[in-house]
């Protein structure tokens, strides 16, 4: 009997059967589109975020079909790709049956300096005056342009001192791309002796001599932690290679814009300093992690890195420029490294430290942008460029990002011993009709101090006795027109939004604090308990310092909180 004539379960079974595997299917159209965007780029897992940017930029959102196709192309699970896409604020994930966002997005900064300048009223006016079917208006954290508050981003075009009229004019003109400022190009920098120091070190230098020069200058990390810069080099070199260098360009602390200031003017001072540091630790590769809120800087760096490759100063691909995607937590060095590896920016538990186990598990030297700017200057001009300036017993120079109720907000390079009164004076004094009331000495993580504390140098180690720190030297000045409690609430709302959610003390603590701070009278006992838990039990500096605005406001502005 022929097999086809036999009776069997395969002949009489009534099951539906499956035509495809379980789960979301990959469509040929989406897969072809993703492959076309990726081109001949290597399908490396660490490039996941870069590939998401390609899709977001091309289609205005990330559809689940495109995410499924990207997962298939990189041989990753769809869940892994989805969790990364939904972690970052600048990716718009659109599920089946959902409408994609409008073609234009306006992000209105609502951090402290912009709020003081009327950001909430600006956002409300835009929401009332624009068609939501054509343009969506979102609130957004600090964009690093506090000196021109209020600020918004239309597509990738930043509008300084923004008004509804400026926005409508930009929309009508189709002006949605970044304006590139005039800056010192490779040709101009090289004509002035640029990269000669690097070439000489590569040919004849000894890293210990350079390290000694950095230590002699007194340079400390200028991203906020203040760790002695030269000391890091020994830690990294003490571990077996291959080694990497990572530049932390995720300048997300509200009120901070000094890195952008230098990069939009003298990018090659930073790049030469980076290459000197990479040479010192024998780094096999240098990664630059730059925040997505700086599109002009990303364009400048991409252009000038290509110029360095063309000039033979670096091999093609030695400098790997990575683009963030809207996550303040990636300013924490281990979270930044997770993001460079194409993952969610979740801070790592330490030890081990990144000098031992960093990018791809290898020893990694992490420096801030401004730190590398000074490394180049110290090697070109000598340690005297920093250590010959002294004021109030403090040695060195600091780049203060100054904003708020002052006449001339901006980056002011002053002696490290400068007090808040010196800084306000350098910024042109208080705005007319405003009396100095309070100030944020180093970003929202540092909280608020009253105007009566005005004789303390704003430098490393000087503010700790007051329960705060200099951090990134992001100084926001408040006046008698402002309420300290409102400023503190603005800071906590920022931390609530930007908590990565990994640890309960930070995730729940920030949310709880915001609710308690919105009451007419603050529950001081409950807030004190919350401060202790967040400070002691949070994994990283975000949760550990998020309570500073609460603590210092209750201490110095108790009349406002009841």
What is this structure, in a nutshell?
By secondary structure, this protein is of the alpha/beta class.
Overall mean confidence score, pLDDT: 95
Q: Beta-sheet strand percentage?
A: 5-15%
| Range of helix content | 40-55%
Q: Total number of helical segments?
A: 25
Distance between the termini: 95 Å
Show unreliable segments. none
Largest sheet: 5 strands, mixed
Q: Overall 3D geometry?
A: globular
Strand line-up across the major sheet: 14-13-17-15-16
From the alpha-carbon coordinates, what is the Rg to the nearest angstrom?
26 Å
Total number of strands: 17
Given helix and strand content, the structural type is alpha/beta
Which characteristics define this entry?
single chain, 562 residues, alpha/beta, 5-stranded mixed beta sheet, 4-stranded mixed beta sheet, 17 strands, 42% helix, 14% strand
Written account of the structure:
With 562 residues, this protein is α/β, with parallel strands linked by helices. It is built from 25 helices and 17 strands. A 5-stranded mixed beta sheet has the order 14-13-17-15-16, sandwiched between helices. It has a 4-stranded mixed beta sheet with strand order 4-3-5-6, with helices on one face. Strands 9-8-7-10 form a 4-stranded parallel beta sheet, sandwiched between helices. Helix 15 (295-310) links the parallel strand 8 (283-290) and strand 9 (319-323). The protein starts with 8 loop residues before the first helix and ends with a helix. The model has no long low-confidence stretch (mean pLDDT 95).
């Amino acid at each position: 009997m022929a097999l086809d004539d036999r009776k069997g379960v395969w002949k009489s079974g009534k099951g539906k059967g499956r035509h495809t595997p379980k789960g979301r299917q990959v469509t040929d159209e989406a897969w072809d589109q993703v492959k076309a965007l990726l081109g001949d780029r290597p399908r490396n897992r660490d490039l996941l975020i870069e590939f998401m940017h390609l899709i977001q930029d091309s289609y205005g959102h990330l559809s689940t079909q495109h995410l499924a196709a990207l997962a298939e192309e990189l041989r990753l699970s769809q869940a892994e790709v989805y969790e990364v896409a939904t972690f970052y604020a600048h990716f718009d994930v659109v599920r089946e049956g959902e409408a994609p966002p409008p073609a234009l997005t306006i992000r209105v900064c609502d951090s402290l300096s912009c709020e003081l300048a009327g950001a909430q009223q600006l956002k409300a006016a835009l929401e009332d005056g624009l068609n939501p079917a054509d343009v969506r208006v979102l609130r957004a954290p600090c964009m690093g342009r506090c000196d021109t508050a209020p600020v918004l981003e239309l597509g990738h075009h930043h509008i300084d001192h923004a008004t509804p009229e400026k926005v409508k004019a930009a929309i009508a003109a189709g002006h949605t791309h970044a304006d590139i400022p005039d800056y010192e190009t490779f040709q101009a920098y090289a004509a002035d002796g640029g990269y000669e120091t690097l070439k000489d070190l590569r040919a004849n230098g000894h890293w210990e001599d350079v390290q000694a020069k950095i230590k002699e200058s007194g340079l400390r990390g200028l991203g906020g932690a203040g760790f002695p810069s030269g000391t890091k080099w020994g830690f990294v070199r003490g571990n077996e290679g291959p080694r990497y260098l990572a530049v932390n360009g995720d300048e997300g602390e509200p009120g901070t814009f000094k890195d952008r200031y230098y990069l939009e003017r003298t990018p090659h001072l930073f790049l030469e300093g980076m290459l000197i540091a990479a040479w010192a630790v024998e780094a096999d590769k240098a990664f630059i992690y730059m925040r997505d809120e700086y599109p002009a800087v990303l364009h400048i760096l991409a252009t000038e890195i290509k110029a360095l490759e063309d000039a033979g100063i670096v091999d093609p691909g030695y400098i790997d420029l990575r683009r963030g995607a809207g996550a303040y937590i990636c300013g924490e060095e281990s979270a930044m490294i997770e993001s460079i590896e194409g993952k969610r920016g979740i801070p790592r538990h330490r030890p081990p430290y990144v000098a031992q186990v960093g990018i791809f598990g290898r020893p990694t030297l992490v420096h801030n942008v401004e730190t590398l700017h000074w490394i180049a200057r110290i090697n070109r001009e000598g340690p005297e460029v920093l250590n010959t300036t002294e004021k109030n017993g403090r040695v060195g120079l600091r780049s203060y990002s100054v904003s708020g109720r002052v006449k001339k907000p901006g980056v002011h390079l002053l002696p490290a011993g400068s007090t808040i009164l010196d800084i306000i004076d350098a910024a042109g004094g208080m705005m007319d009709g405003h009396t100095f009331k309070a100030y944020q000495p180093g970003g929202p993580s540092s909280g608020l101090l009253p105007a009566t504390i005005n004789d303390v140098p704003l430098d490393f180690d000087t503010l700790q006795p007051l329960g705060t720190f200099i951090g990134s030297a992001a100084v926001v000045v408040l006046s008698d027109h402002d309420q300290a409690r409102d400023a503190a609430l603005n800071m906590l709302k920022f931390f609530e939004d930007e908590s990565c959610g990994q640890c309960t003390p930070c995730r729940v603590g920030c949310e709880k604090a915001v609710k308690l701070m919105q009451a007419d009278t603050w529950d001081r006992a409950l807030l004190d308990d919350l401060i202790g838990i967040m400070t002691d039990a949070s994994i990283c500096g975000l949760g550990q310092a998020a309570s500073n605005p609460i603590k210092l406001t209750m201490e110095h502005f108790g009349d406002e909180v009841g």
